[in-house]
TrEMBL record:
One of its GO terms (molecular function) is acyltransferase activity. This is UDP-3-O-acyl-N-acetylglucosamine deacetylase. The keyword Acyltransferase applies. It holds the Pfam family LpxC. It comes from the Bacteria. Its EC number is 3.5.1.108. Keywords: Acyltransferase, Hydrolase, Lipid A biosynthesis, Lipid biosynthesis, Lipid metabolism, Metal-binding, Transferase, Zinc. The lineage of its organism: Bacteria, Pseudomonadati, Pseudomonadota, Alphaproteobacteria, Rhodobacterales. Its cofactor is Zn(2+). The active site is at H263. Belongs to the LpxC family. It catalyses: a UDP-3-O-[(3R)-3-hydroxyacyl]-N-acetyl-alpha-D-glucosamine + H2O = a UDP-3-O-[(3R)-3-hydroxyacyl]-alpha-D-glucosamine + acetate. It comes from Puniceibacterium antarcticum.
């Protein structure tokens, strides 16, 4: 059945790029509602922004959605990944500004809050997007692909950075049940020190600290405490990809591969999917398939202790 959060939960922090205080509240919603953001600081006009692939603006450093009047919410990928990874299909997310709080740089605080409140079933069947044929997008930086899978969502991701602290990393996961919560949710956003300096010159990353991002310089990890996982970087890229794929509006059944992919490539991939005749079909999920979806049967105890 479709689900929502059992009761509202709030999070406070600062925006990664704006550096401004932010308060976000995940609220229950009815069946067929989907996921919407509401800008509570907007008093006049349309304050509602749909968390949907066709409302996304292409930005390389985060995922930003925008409504027809230009009202936007940015850096939504971690909370979207948490909703998808916990199996939440419907939610109203109230936020008092234009950027989601970065918290610790991962999705773990959102996951912890969602599972503490609990998941409530609704009186409506889950629809899923079944991939029927391969779709792929490429840029000079990398490529991303969706193709038919084995009845759930599986993911491969490959990254390659010059800094030896990251280097080349590959990971493959079957996202069934609590895989996201156990394997990915605590992995933090990461960047090179040189990138931090460049972003701040452009007025970005003003809320970034060593406590909410993994910062590397060559073969050194500068953030106190080091890495949560040896391959934390590729795990975080998979976390981002799950959050960006959640903008499809329904769980995806298929296999996703990202090679040096980011937010823009994953969104371009969804646009290619929905614009390619015969590439997918919407279908009601069977009980057997429902048990393979991300978040099915997940429990609070599965959240990694490191987060």
């Amino acid at each position: 059945m479709q689900t929502t959060i059992r009761s509202a939960i709030s999070f406070t922090g600062v925006g990664l790029h704006s550096g401004k205080p932010a308060r976000l509240t995940i609220c229950p919603a009815s069946a067929e509602y989907g996921v919407w953001f509401k800008r509570t600081d907007i008093a006049v006009g349309d304050a509602m922004v749909p968390a949907r692939w066709d409302a996304t603006e292409h930005t390389p450093l985060c995922t930003r959605i925008c409504n027809r009047l230009g009202v936007s919410v940015s850096t939504i990928e971690h909370v979207m990944a948490a909703l998808a990874g916990c199996g939440i299909h419907n939610a109203l997310i109230e936020i008092d500004g234009p950027e989601v709080p970065i918290l610790d740089g991962s999705a773990a605080p959102f996951v912890r809050g969602i599972l503490a409140r609990g998941v409530r079933e609704l009186n409506a069947d889950v629809r899923v997007i079944e991939i029927l044929k391969k779709v792929e997008v490429k840029t000079d930086q990398g490529w991303a692909r969706l193709e038919p899978g084995s009845g759930g969502l599986t993911m491969d991701f490959h990254i390659n950075f010059a800094d030896r602290a990251i280097g080349t990393q590959n990971k493959s996961l079957d996202m069934r049940n609590g895989t996201f919560v156990r394997e990915l949710c605590d992995s933090r956003t990461f960047c090179r020190q040189a990138d931090v300096d460049a972003m701040r010159e452009k007025g970005l990353a003003l809320g970034g600290t060593m406590d909410n991002a993994v910062v590397v310089d060559g073969d050194r990890v500068l953030s106190p405490g080091g890495l949560r996982h040896k391959d934390e970087a590729v795990r975080h890229k998979m976390l981002d990809a799950l959050g960006d794929l959640a903008l499809a509006g329904a769980p995806i059944l298929g296999h996703y591969t990202g090679h040096k992919a980011g937010h823009t490539l994953t969104n371009l991939l969804l646009r290619e999917l929905f614009n390619t005749p015969g590439a997918y079909r919407m279908t009601l999920v069977s009980q057997e398939t429902a048990a393979r979806l991300p978040g099915a049967g997940v429990e609070r105890a599965e959240i990694p202790a490191v987060a």
